[in-house]
Amino acid sequence: MSADTQRRIKRLIDIVVSLTVLVLLSPVLAVAAILIRLRLGKPVVFSQQRTGRAGRPFTVYKLRTMTDERDADGVLLPDGQRCKGIGLLLRRASIDELPQLVNVLKGELSLVGPRPLLPRYDPWYTDRERLRFEVPPGITGLAQIHGRNGLAWNERLELDVVYVTNWSLWLELQIIARTIRTVLTGAGVAKDPSAQMLDLDRERMLT
Hints:
This protein is mainly alpha-helical.
């Protein structure tokens, strides 16, 4: 099977799986949205700019999982203190990721690929790490099934390169299968990723 045929199948899988999951889990999304509105307030959906294929920016969507709690000086509290209750539950069950399926349908994301990161990280990738921009970013990827936020930046970004340079439909299906297992077990979910590691730009400024 040619690479072009495999990639067309990949896109078909993206569309079929995304539509199916959104339809089947629409009651879950509705309940989650109501609980977020009641417990965390507005907005229910969190949006943020990320860098996609070929370095093009796009807006990624997730369900809100954090409060707007601030300290006495009006500064937002650390993520780990603001992600609690319903927000923590949604994050542990990966329900907060479901709106990204809309990004998949729009062609901005794929089910599998390098996780899209913040635009401010763009100047800090090595030439090898920039291979991540040759393919659509994904909701899950090799890094997510090998430790998620428990991996150091160098390891996470290298796994992205390994995915790009060794891509096949078989690898794609393996990652999807292992992701399902990871989600069901809740393995590797971090309440506050920033407490485990520095942001990429801050880390590389110090090295």
